[in-house]
Design a protein that fits this description.
two-stranded antiparallel ribbon, 10 helices, 46% helix, globular
Length: 293
């Protein structure tokens, strides 16, 4: 086999590994959502490819030691996306899959909005949108002062781009030349108050990040191959001192489950009891069909 052939096989295995992780993250999210009968399931389905790319391919961590000093930091700014993050943590082996059944229940370590005091692997308590990137800037700067080679990944929503604190943090990251910081923005075009472009238009968003001094890429956030290429480009930029990176990911709420992809009032979904199994069947059919091609 030629060197090119070997490289192609490695990339194919990498792609299949991350796509498999994304499928299981989606399935975990559906199972968790069924516990409550409702929740932020649509966001978890839409962001599953992004989360899988991070946890199954990019992030340096030890599942048995979530507080490992040399770990990379993943900061979930959008606390209501916790359902997707828990699914990714379970897929990574940081929390038991069985524990996902407790999602949103009394005394659970998995509250509906992410809290660092409860959940292993949850670096910050999110929820008040617009805080995450500021914390990420402080973490990246602190790690650099410590001489650490660890990187910081911050997951934001497009709704957070409405917040002035996000842009202050973006300006600070450029000022301090935080080449160890990568932001990921889930652009699903939906907020609690409606469609993003009717609440507050943020386009042209790529040019805005570039104007703030960031290395900006915009990709289809539901295309694993495109995501991995973007993360590779961001990794090539990474340095103790350099440009921060942002990956702007266009995603679809409910991705992978046709029943949910075009549902109205998708920010917080209520799903009927008889629909959950249908959702799982649609998800599996789509994944198996894609794998067979």
């Amino acid at each position: 086999m030629t060197t090119r052939g070997k490289a192609s096989d490695v990339e194919a295995e990498r792609l299949a590994r991350v796509e498999g992780a994304a499928y299981r993250i989606r399935r975990h999210a559906l199972n968790m959502g069924e516990v409550q009968g409702q929740g932020y399931v649509g966001q978890a389905l839409g962001a599953a490819d992004m989360l899988a790319a991070v946890y199954a391919d990019q992030l340096r961590f030890r599942a048995e030691d979530p507080e490992w000093e040399d770990r990379d930091r993943f900061l979930l700014s959008t606390g209501h996306y916790a359902i997707g993050h828990y699914a990714a943590l379970a897929e990574a082996g940081i929390i038991p899959v069985k524990e996902l059944e407790t999602y949103g229940s009394d005394d659970s370590r998995l509250p509906m909005s992410g809290m660092s005091t409860y959940t292993p692997g949850m670096e910050i308590s999110g929820g008040s949108l617009g805080h995450g990137l500021s914390i990420a800037v402080g973490a990246a700067l602190g790690l650099r002062y410590q001489g650490s080679g660890s990187r910081v990944y911050n997951f934001l929503s497009d709704g957070e781009l409405d917040e002035g604190s996000t842009w202050e943090a973006a300006m600070g990251a450029h000022h301090h030349r935080l080449g160890n910081l990568t932001a990921m923005v889930d652009i699903n075009a939906l907020q609690a108050d409606g469609k993003t472009d009717t609440v507050l238009r943020t386009e042209p968003v790529t040019e805005k990040w570039q104007a703030f001094g960031w290395y900006a890429q915009r990709v289809n956030g539901n295309d694993v191959g495109a995501l991995l290429a973007a993360f590779d480009n961001a990794a090539a930029q990474a340095a103790a001192v350099g440009r921060p990176s942002v990956i702007l990911c266009d995603t679809k709420v409910g991705r992978g489950v046709p029943l949910l992809e075009d549902r109205e009032k998708a920010h917080f979904m209520r799903i009927e009891e008889h629909e959950w199994q249908l959702c799982r069947e649609q998800l599996t059919t789509g994944f198996e069909g894609k794998a067979a091609r």
